[in-house]
Amino acid sequence: MKKLAKLPLSPFLLPALVLMLGGCETVIDANLDEGPAQLSVDGFITDQPGPQTIRLTQTTNYFNNGTPPAATSATVTLTDNAGNTFAFTDPDNDGFYVWQPSTQSGTLGQIGRTYQLSIRYQNDEYRATSTINRVPVVDSIIFREEKLNPLSSETGYQAEFYARDLPGQTDYYRIRYFRNGELQNRPGNIITLENASFQGSADTDGLVFIRPFRQSINPENFYDMGDSVTVEIQSLTPDAFSFFQSVSGQITNGGLFATPATNVPTNVVNTNRNGRPATGYFIASAVRRKTVRVGSETIRP
Amino acid sequence: MYYKLLLWLLVAAFLPISARAQTSQNALQPTNSQDKQTISGYIKDAANGEGLIGVSVYVKETATGAVTNSYGFYGVTLLPGIYTIVISYVGYETQTRTVTLSGQNVRLDVELSQEGRNLQEVTVSAEREANVKNIEMSVNRIDTKTLQRIPALLGEVDVVRSIQLLPGVSTVGEGATGFNVRGGSIDQNLVLLDEAPVYNSSHLFGFFSVFNPDAVKDVKLIKGGIPSNYGGRIASILDVRLKEGNAKKPELNGGIGLIFSRLSYERPLFKGKGSFIVAGRRSYADVLAQPFLNNDLRGSKFYFYDLTAKANYRINDKNTVFLSGYFGRDVFGADFGFNWGSTTASVRWNHVFSNKLFLNTTAYYSNYDYSLDSDLKRKEPTDFFRTNSRIVDYSLKPDFSLFLGKNTITFGGQAILHDFQPGTATAASSGSVRTFGLESKYALENALYIGNDQQISARLQLQYGLRYSLFNYIGPGEAYAFTTDVPLGTRRFPITTVQYRSGNNIQTYGNWEPRFSAKYELTDNSSLKLSYNRLAQYIHLVSNTTASTPLDIWTPSTNNIKPQIADQLAGGYFRNFGRSGNEFEASVEVYYKWLQNQIDYIDGANLILNKFLEGDLLSGRGRAYGAEFYLKRNTGVVNGWISYTLAKTERQVDGINNGNWFPTRFDKRHTFTSVLLVDPANAKRWNFSATFTLASGTPATFPTNRFEYQGYVVPQNFGNTRNNYRIPPYHRLDLAATLQGRRRPSKRKEDNWVFSVYNVYARKNPFSVYFRQNEDNPRVTEAVRYSVFATLIPSVTYNFKF
Lengths: 301, 802
Description:
The structure holds 2 protein chains of 2 kinds.
Chain A: H1 2-5, H2 15-20, E1 24-28, E2 39-46, E3 52-58, E4 60-61, E5 75-80, E6 85-88, E7 96-99, E8 114-121, E9 124-131, E10 140-147, E11 155-162, E12 172-179, E13 182-183, E14 191-194, H3 211-214, E15 228-236, H4 238-251, E16 269-270, E17 279-285, E18 287-293, E19 299-300
Parallel strand pairs in A: 2-17, 10-19
Antiparallel strand pairs in A: 2-3, 3-7, 5-6, 5-8, 8-9, 9-16, 10-11, 12-13, 12-14, 12-15, 15-18
Chain B: H1 2-28, E1 37-45, E2 56-59, E3 64-67, E4 73-78, E5 81-88, E6 95-101, E7 106-107, E8 110-112, H2 130-133, E9 139-143, H3 144-149, H4 159-163, E10 169-170, E11 180-181, E12 189-193, E13 196-197, E14 202-203, E15 208-209, E16 216-222, E17 236-242, E18 251-256, E19 260-269, E20 274-283, H5 285-289, E21 301-316, E22 319-333, E23 337-352, E24 357-373, E25 384-404, E26 407-429, E27 432-437, E28 441-455, E29 460-474, E30 477-482, E31 494-500, E32 505-523, E33 526-537, E34 539-542, E35 553-556, E36 564-577, E37 584-601, E38 617-633, E39 638-653, E40 662-663, E41 670-678, E42 686-695, E43 699-700, E44 705-709, E45 712-716, E46 725-726, E47 730-740, E48 750-758, E49 768-773, E50 781-787, E51 793-801
Parallel strand pairs in B: 1-7, 1-8, 12-17
Antiparallel strand pairs in B: 1-4, 2-3, 2-5, 5-6, 9-16, 10-11, 12-13, 14-15, 16-17, 18-19, 18-51, 19-20, 20-21, 21-22, 22-23, 23-24, 24-25, 25-26, 26-27, 26-28, 28-29, 29-32, 30-31, 32-33, 33-36, 34-35, 36-37, 37-38, 38-39, 39-40, 39-41, 41-42, 42-47, 43-46, 44-45, 47-48, 48-51, 49-50
InterPro entries (chain B): Beta-barrel_TonB, Beta-barrel_TonB_sf, CarboxyPept-like_regulatory, Plug_dom, Plug_dom_sf
Protein name (chain B): TonB-dependent receptor
Organism (chain B): Fibrisoma montanum
């Protein structure tokens, strides 16, 4: 049912229907060319207290299934438009560059501020910019006992969360959810919203998130009694929203209605126009979470 | 300017009134013996009174002739004398008539009888050589008899799937909507159902087409040398004509298959002065498939239905009117609902003036729409999402044919009003309802054309013409100007908006479209043909997926989207040989096409409900060239055809593939098809068919590298190239056997059983190859071959006729 919740959203989901007609997927061998390694930035900083991490790796050939090689010995600094500078260091040489606050509650990100990331790596200088936009809170999370499918006798607890888009301007968000503390991070779990709905929808400014999104936080067979469920809303800039849409499109791009495979965009720019380009994205985001348990107080008839 | 054109069209449509007055004046004058007279009339099927299209009417004494038009009408103009007229048509017995012309025009209506069932017993008549004698090139016809012999999927006969077996026609993959002709995309085919355009010709995405074979009389595909009376699309014309209905006796046809059932009824009207046919289909895959659906999808519904109807009435010898209509829908639903469908209606009036002049005026309406609904099960007004979109056309099209002996002049015009509704959406969330709609867009598409088919000598025939098309993108609406200084291949943002009032012109495009064909008969059974045509297309299907989806929208040319233009040069050699000189038909054709203003998309284009869609479109050029080889055996125990196409189709778009040429998604280097029909001489009730297809894999973009972002493994193509690989080749064998029921002389009932096997050796043909993370270990990436049908599909269909 989780899959179906997204169905009206875009033609990408039609393949599910066509699969009914006998579609078949087989894993095959493919010989691929390999391109030279590029710097890849996995940067996501938030307005939450505590340390912030930016991970730098190198791209590898597509079928290299190991941990991506770390991009070490880089100089990573972040500045904001209020004149602050934050240094990110990698003492373990593993590519994870960390900013440590001076106090435990020290916070890097502030809503409304713009952040510029500077990376000096192997004689190249890279820049990326992002802004922390506003974010609504998760009002509530409730559960209903539902059949796993219309003909099944088995039931589970289908979750639905409520949050309201902030009115007055076009906002972009991403939803993540955790079951018993475990992030649900499959390719199909990239959920992004424009206002309270998807891009190319009605103008849903200021509305409660529409139902397909409210119910987008369910695993295949729903939740069990006692499960802990966390829902997180992240604010995104319009370009970060496009980036996630593109990532989602490229990593779930099968079936009859696939779009041409293209590279996902990056906001990491080499200051030397002729230098080797980088991949990845730097995103600054405000994050709100709520955690509840499946129990009598959260179950609705 | 377009007002003038409209005015002209109106005049043309009402011309008959004034022309009639003129005709009667002429009749009063004494006839000069040196004046030519015309023999004209309708050629019909003796069994059911259907007008026959493309019948050869040959005058022995002058070695000239004519071919019947889409309504079965012909005309030959000659000096007074006694003539032997030979009327012949493939599959029908040839008739010879002697006609004396002595100062009067002669009306000669002829009915032809079908040949016996066993083709091998029929003496081959000399007039089977239409492929050599006819000036048409790059044209394929499938008659319903052949169509019935090659069931496509699940034992069902299908027009679009059958034309994919012809040279120069391909598809991006099994089950994809539409078809590609000589390197053209699917929206570049003008698909006509009794002259009304069909905007989406597919049922069940693309597994079946909207044409009910029980109601189809004639299917003609024109890939090149397109005459001046056709226009509006740049790759091909698929001209589907419906049956008129049996004008002699009532007839009931039907079929029961695994996926759907068909029923049609036809009968004479007004004591044979008219007739009608009504044909319907309904699929029941949803009912049958229910137990096999996986859990997520159980309880869902998916089906389609369609209704095709046509009626005609012959007012008198000079006037006939036709009414045709189609209505069909596909419905999918589980939690969400999704349905789409087309409606077409056309009214046509055939008028014969002075025997020399024939007029057909068509008025049509065509509509395609879809709608989505997010919550079908819970009908609450507080939470839902609904969206819909449509395109509607209204058109008037007078078309004259003037038969002047060695010249047949065709002229006329067309006016179309396009109404595009790109989409409205309504979202309700916890009781708040919001509606959002893109403004409708309007356009007028007009054309005037004239063409002449001229017999220069017994061996040389020319067909030449000119079409002027005029397109106006009109208000009410908003027109946008976009930034131009963005990096290549990225989104352009609107900078100014101009509001236009109803009827005000926003943008005008006009194109002269010259058409030319020539045929030279080298010998009695071989000929050379050459053609050139320019075509302009003003409306475009916005689709960025491998197979077109029913959600794809049509958009007009605007101040930002230029019309597509194609120039095609084609040449061919046609030869018949074998027993009686034409047991075999063979042809070789080569073509080269230049394409302008081809639409492509920026990476991450947003095509749904996007007001500023034009900012996400790119424009480029294309080229397509190839050679087509075709060999057909007309007679014998084993007959049918084989075809081989060698082709290349490429595109160049600034902002894609670093600005270099790249193969299009539907580029196939080699395509081989064979259709073998077996009519055993000693098993009169059985016949068999085998269809084999072999084609190169289509291009695809494969990654070179990967990187991780937030635990997701993202593919990366270092050079940012497009279509750098090819998926494995496609091949498939289908078999079918038909068992005729026993005929009882006392009963009118005829029936047959069709047994068929699709994909006999169960090949997992690739539709696409894509890359993904392993389900269990997200760090492991894999290449996946996606096959639409990975198994053999047996089926049985029962057909009956009363």
